[in-house]
Amino acid sequence: MANYVGKDVSIKLKRDLGIFQGKIIKPEVDSITINNVFHNGVKLKKFEAHVTIAREEIENITFIQVVDPVEAANRSVRNTPVTQNTSPKESEPQKPTKSPPSFTNKKPNQYDGNKQQHKTTRPIPIKSRNTPNYISSSAPHSKALESQLNGKRNGNGNLNGNGNGNGNGNKRHRNYDLMQPDDFSDQGDFDFESNNAMFDKKSIFQEIEAETNPDKPDLVRQIGKPEEKYRHDQNILDSMFMQFKNIQLEFKPKQEYTTDEPGLLIPSIPQSLRNRIQNLAASHGYSMERQIDFLARGATELAIQLLGGSRRFSPKNLHQWPRVTIICDEPYNMLKSEMGLCTARQLACHGVNVMVFVKTATTNPKESKELELYTATGNDFTGNVKDLTPCDLIILSVSNMNQNSQIVRYIQQNRVMVMAIDPPVMGVNPGEINIRNTVIPILPLDDIHTSCGKLHLVNLGISNKFFKDAGIKYFPIFGSRSLIPLHLKA
């Protein structure tokens, strides 16, 4: 049994289990163990693994002679005569293939254990269902063996399959190595989607169509193409560029502001001119209380956006429902306090928890119902800074540039966003209070300080007639919105 160690064998198994090939490392009476295993011509993933085959599973054992490719090449160079090829196809060099070699039905060979050289660096040829004899690509008589694939030798010595001597059998030669299965198990799955996305099929089809039909006009090419669909608000025909008309003053403005609309300029006006426009509207029935309602509506919309919008007001956020503090430095019946109280009332109607800081003591005989309307929402107000609680947003509705230290300390300790409703042009405690957003009515005022933050202009709904009476050629600038951002023109 020891004489068989190191021999290369081809073992055919029963029950269509296939053919195993390898080198014998442990021959026994009931089994045989081989390594460097090929199964049906395909190398196993674990090439160094040992495969043990039981005797009752073996149908046939064939010893295989593996010839050294270097030695065979040298012998073929010395012994092969130079012949002239008669067929153009036969003169072409054959390209090597990566697939396993063909099967064999050759009878067992007799070996001399001292002369045999075993090679494990290449697959071992196995049996073929179609080829009658074993063929090695490195055998010295490769030409004679190749003729066995092309046809059977007839009595006349011709190598054709039908025996008629016309030599057509050589033309039907096929490479049986290509018929063997390849091992793709060590490769990843091919990503068809990403590969298909890289292929611009539409442009290539257009190029092919243009090359095949160069004389066909464009109109004919587009007959079979589907028509494009347009939105209900999309223009089908191209039109000239349209833009808003600019507001014109009788004098040159100190500053000009732009909006998100291209080409639209909004000039700044002095405080006296803005007061005149508001008084003209109030004298014709558009009272100051109604103007305050519109201004508070714009401030409420901006505050809701700063608080987080619809996501913050979702029932899922009941554990962090928004809280707002509004600070008014005037008595409740003054103009700025009425703006703050009206904004607080509208925020409370959206479900926001609001706390208002406002003074109730006043010497102004003016009557105001804003405080009463606000308290009807169920929210509270206070005149003591110590009663103010932490919040998510602070809204300033003040007329004085300098606030007391307690208000400033409360704002600094909260570290939240600060919003202002029509503040003084120089801001509120510049350097101490950082205003992020400001809401202003009608038109921006001259020399608004940068400490007021980002400006937002509110549409109060004042008619063009009152602007014209004040000396301003006014055109509607808000479009579909009631609150537009302003950017200082450089």
From TrEMBL:
<dbReference type="InterPro" id="IPR025762">
    <property type="entry name" value="DFDF"/>
</dbReference>
<keyword id="KW-0963">Cytoplasm</keyword>
<dbReference type="GO" id="GO:0000932">
    <property type="term" value="C:P-body"/>
</dbReference>
<feature type="compositionally biased region" description="Gly residues">
    <location>
        <begin position="158"/>
        <end position="168"/>
    </location>
</feature>
<protein>
    <recommendedName>
        <fullName>Enhancer of mRNA-decapping protein 3</fullName>
    </recommendedName>
</protein>
<dbReference type="Pfam" id="PF09532">
    <property type="entry name" value="FDF"/>
</dbReference>
<feature type="compositionally biased region" description="Polar residues">
    <location>
        <begin position="96"/>
        <end position="114"/>
    </location>
</feature>
<feature type="domain" description="DFDF">
    <location>
        <begin position="178"/>
        <end position="214"/>
    </location>
</feature>
<dbReference type="InterPro" id="IPR019050">
    <property type="entry name" value="FDF_dom"/>
</dbReference>
<feature type="region of interest" description="Disordered">
    <location>
        <begin position="75"/>
        <end position="176"/>
    </location>
</feature>
<dbReference type="InterPro" id="IPR036652">
    <property type="entry name" value="YjeF_N_dom_sf"/>
</dbReference>
<feature type="domain" description="YjeF N-terminal">
    <location>
        <begin position="273"/>
        <end position="468"/>
    </location>
</feature>
<feature type="compositionally biased region" description="Polar residues">
    <location>
        <begin position="128"/>
        <end position="148"/>
    </location>
</feature>
<dbReference type="InterPro" id="IPR004443">
    <property type="entry name" value="YjeF_N_dom"/>
</dbReference>
<feature type="compositionally biased region" description="Polar residues">
    <location>
        <begin position="76"/>
        <end position="88"/>
    </location>
</feature>
<dbReference type="GO" id="GO:0031087">
    <property type="term" value="P:deadenylation-independent decapping of nuclear-transcribed mRNA"/>
</dbReference>
<dbReference type="GO" id="GO:0033962">
    <property type="term" value="P:P-body assembly"/>
</dbReference>
<comment type="similarity">
    <text>Belongs to the EDC3 family.</text>
</comment>
<dbReference type="InterPro" id="IPR025609">
    <property type="entry name" value="Lsm14-like_N"/>
</dbReference>
<dbReference type="GO" id="GO:0003729">
    <property type="term" value="F:mRNA binding"/>
</dbReference>
